[in-house]
From TrEMBL:
InterPro entries: Anti-sigma_ant (IPR003658), HATPase_C_sf (IPR036890), HATPase_dom (IPR003594), STAS_dom (IPR002645), STAS_dom_sf (IPR036513). It comes from Fannyhessea vaginae DSM 15829. NCBIfam families: ant_ant_sig. Gene3D superfamilies: Histidine kinase-like ATPase, C-terminal domain, STAS domain. Belongs to the anti-sigma-factor antagonist family. PROSITE patterns: STAS (PS50801). This is Anti-sigma factor antagonist. GO terms for molecular function: anti-sigma factor antagonist activity. It comes from the Bacteria. Residues 1-93 form the STAS domain. The lineage of its organism: Bacteria, Bacillati, Actinomycetota, Coriobacteriia, Coriobacteriales.
Length: 247
């Protein structure tokens, strides 16, 4: 069993059919409620899946999402992939590149970015700002899923910057590297700091607010939130790796 901070990778073995689904369900259940907000099912050793297996995947997806988590699959064999596609299961449980969940190389602090951009957030037209940011990030070799996740995280941070300040001095700084993007979102508010995302209070299922930081932590490879040094306001620091560059 591979456990990365906030992530559990569960290897499923053999066929997922009516005779094995109970044991597979018990294995998943043993990790489902252990505060791992991101669950990855490794299907490398699964060669067949029937309707019982589909039901297991569906129920697992619903339960982990009910706890504000994310589920995905890796290493799916071609014959199983064909079954999942026919059942439209990939519309609900995405297939990820397994390399994205390997141990990351240490970032060299002296490494210079390929390029940098600074974009001012327009508090009245966030959509326009997001489009500009996505246009810049599209120059990098992110997959469509990686870019989607990164833009969703940036959008959450931008929304917080505008929601908790007047947004007039909020900026997005993009630093592009060969294997990652580093994005800093800053504002001029009172300043907010958290030492550990996992220590945030749980959000009631019916609550309309309060899920943004949890969501960001699931979408990116690195997240820190703290007060700006020497200035008023908050700095959200996001790191997202490019899986194609690390293959």
């Amino acid at each position: 069993m591979n456990v990365i901070p906030n992530i559990v990778v569960i290897p499923l073995k053999g066929d997922l059919d009516v005779t094995t689904v109970a044991s597979a369900s018990a294995l998943i259940d043993s990790f489902l409620y252990r505060e791992y907000p991101r669950m990855i099912l490794n299907l490398a050793d699964v060669s067949f899946i029937d309707s019982s297996g589909m039901g297991l995947l569906w129920s697992t997806m619903r339960r982990i999402r009910a706890h504000q988590g994310i589920i995905s699959m890796i290493n799916v064999q071609p014959q199983v992939l064909a079954i999942l596609r026919r059942a439209r299961m990939l519309d609900f449980i995405p297939l990820r590149n397994s390399d994205a969940f390997c141990q990351k190389d240490m970032f060299q602090p002296h490494a210079l970015p390929l390029w940098q951009r600074v974009i001012q957030i327009d508090p009245k037209h966030l959509c326009t700002t997001r489009s500009r940011i996505q246009e810049e990030l599209s120059q990098l070799a992110f997959s469509s899923d990686e870019l989607f996740d990164l833009m969703l995280a940036i959008g959450e941070a931008m929304g917080n910057a505008v929601d908790h300040t007047d947004g007039s001095c909020s900026l997005v700084r993009i630093s592009a590297y060969s294997d990652r993007a580093i994005v800093d979102i800053t504002d001029c508010g009172e300043g907010y700091e958290i030492t550990c995302v996992e220590d945030l209070p749980k959000v009631d299922e019916g609550a309309m607010r309060g899920r943004g930081i949890h969501l960001m932590s699931l979408l990116v490879d690195g997240l820190s939130i703290g007060k700006r040094l020497g200035h008023s306001g908050t700095r959200v620091h996001i790191v997202k790796f490019i899986s194609a560059a690390r293959a």
